[in-house]
Amino acid sequence: MAATDVDVFSFNTVVLRLLPVLGDITLQICSPSWLSQSSSVASFISRCCLSAPLQLHSLVVTNCLSFRWNEEKRSLNLGGHVGFDSLPDQLVSKSVTQGFCFNILCVGETGIGKSTLMNTLFNTMFENEEASHYQNGVYLRPRTYDLLESNVHLKLTIVDTVGFGDQINKEDSYKPIVDYIDTQFENYLQEELKIKRSLFNYHDTRIHICLYFIAPTGHSLKSLDLVTMKKLDSKVNIIPIIAKADTISKSELNKFKIKIMSELVSNGVQIYQFPTDDEAVSEINASMNALLPFAVVGSVEEVKVGNKTVRARQYPWGIVQVENENHCDFVKLREMLIRVNMEDLREQTHARHYELYRRCKLEEMGFKDTDPDSQPFSLQETYEAKRKEFLGDLQRKEEEMRQMFVNKVKETEAELKEKERELHDKFEQLKRMHQEEKRKVEEKRRDLEEEMNGFNRKKVAAETLSLSQPLKKDKDKKK
Ligand SMILES: Nc1nc2c(ncn2[C@@H]2O[C@H](COP(=O)(O)OP(=O)(O)O)[C@@H](O)[C@H]2O)c(=O)[nH]1
Ligand SMILES: [Mg+2]
Questions:
Q1: Which helix (H) or strand (E) holds 27?
Q2: Whose Cα sits closest to atom 24 in ligand 1?
Q3: What is the structure's pLDDT at 4?
Q4: How far is ligand 1, taken at its centre, from the CA of residue 218, in Å?
Q5: How far apart are CA 376 and CA 436, in angstroms?
Q6: Quick one: DSSP state of residue 201?
Q7: 3-class DSSP state for residue 160?
Q8: How far from 116 is each of 123, 128, 271, 458, CA to CA, in Å?
Q9: How far is CA 292 from each of CA 91, 209, 213, 253, 271, rounded to the nearest angstrom?
Q10: pLDDT at res. 27
């Protein structure tokens, strides 16, 4: 529109009726010269925005003004009880009926105490197969269990990294783990992209937490630990734990914890931080963040201490109690992992790690939110563009194949012709040889005939001569 045509009143009466419904609206300016006069644009915008609860969302160079409805919420007092205050209860009831999924990935060398810790954590005996140290490579073994606690169903999947750290060449040990995590994301994405989705009863196998078991060496992290954690940190929530913490002294443990954290920081490894934005748990979470990595001890053995039976490891010199906070950080780990932050771990997995995977995957497939002019990119357009690209590719490939086929036929034809020519030459040569032979035989035959004729002539002459000789002798005697 030209500067003189700007009619804020009619703009408001038409557009403002649509805006609360649409949420935002974009005006196409037909006169680029008007748009370039910044003073007229500014006055138009301010008049529009003053006369209605509008907010200029974006002023785009492509002749568009984009507005967004910015009305303040209007609060009202209810005359009596309506009942929507039961909404949280409805949500709780629905979630309890549906049940929950929680998936733990245990990464650590064979024999470091992964299975024992899982048994200790959930106070049960999961089926454990002792892994051998002679695996050719690393593979992931998921096992799913249905657990029930006070009417709450938990579908728990524990994924074990079998053979991790057992190979001489550990260069590719992290790959099966990364692949497994990506496959679970991919499965979820595929379900989301289906036309008929059933996410409400979908068995979500995405990994919510990776417990990384560090050997209690007291030295420093192994390069395998650093490489693996670095490869995983953008895909999963990592909580590093020092395993078998009963085998390291208290002062060594403190130094080891500091060393591990400084190594993680200097190598840019992002581990999971317990959230501190929720007031109810911010204090405890902040204090626990400072205690990472947790030093844990696992045991399912029950030992009598005083008049209480506790889970502990018994040594000739004393007893290490798993749930004694002076002995190890097991209780802290259980508190943080299960009782305080389980939902945050699930949420982080969906909102951060899966979102990143989904974004990269969709971008890889050619989907975008905005085009180069910052205009919203429609799915339909993307699909059409991709389809066109795909069809073009297909046509090009078809043409290439056709050309290849034609070339091949031509080549074969030329080869056949060459062979035919060779055969023809050979035939001609043989024919010539045959004629030559024939000529020679003919010559020989003629020679032989001549010889025979000569011989016959000589024979006749000889016979004639021998007949005339006796007559002459008789005549001589008579004389
Ligand atoms: N000292 C000590 N030994 C442990 C601890 N946890 C497990 N173990 C022992 O380490 C061995 C291997 O444990 P396991 O859980 O099978 O290891 P995984 O191969 O990592 O699953 C077993 O003999 C366990 O009793 C621990 O916290 N401290
Ligand atoms: Mg095991």
A1: strand 24-28
A2: 113
A3: 39
A4: 18
A5: 90
A6: G
A7: strand
A8: 10, 9, 23, 126
A9: 34, 15, 13, 12, 10
A10: 62
Q: Which residues contact ligand 1 via a Cβ below 6 A?
A: 108, 110-116, 130-131, 244, 246-247, 297-298, 313
Tokens of 188: 């979820």
- CA distances to 168, 184, 219, 366 from 386, rounded to whole Å, are 46, 26, 54, 7
Tokens in use for 97? 């009926």
Query: Which atom of ligand 1 lies at the shortest distance from residue 130's CA?
Result: 16
> What is the spatial distance between Cα 179 and Cα 140, in angstroms, rounded to a whole number?
10
For residue 159, what pLDDT is reported?
94
Stretches where the chain sits below pLDDT 50 are 1-6, 9, 58-61
Q: Taking the model in full, what pTM does it have?
A: 0.68
Query: How much distance in Å is there from the Cα of 131 to the middle of ligand 2?
Result: 6
Quote the percentage of the chain above a pLDDT of 90: 49
The predicted pLDDT at position 201 comes to: 81
The number of the ligand 1 atom at minimal distance from the alpha carbon of 131 is 19
What does the chain come to in residues? 479
- DSSP-derived 3-state class of residue 9: helix
Tell me the residue type at 293.
P
Q: How far is CA 175 from the centre of its chain?
A: 11
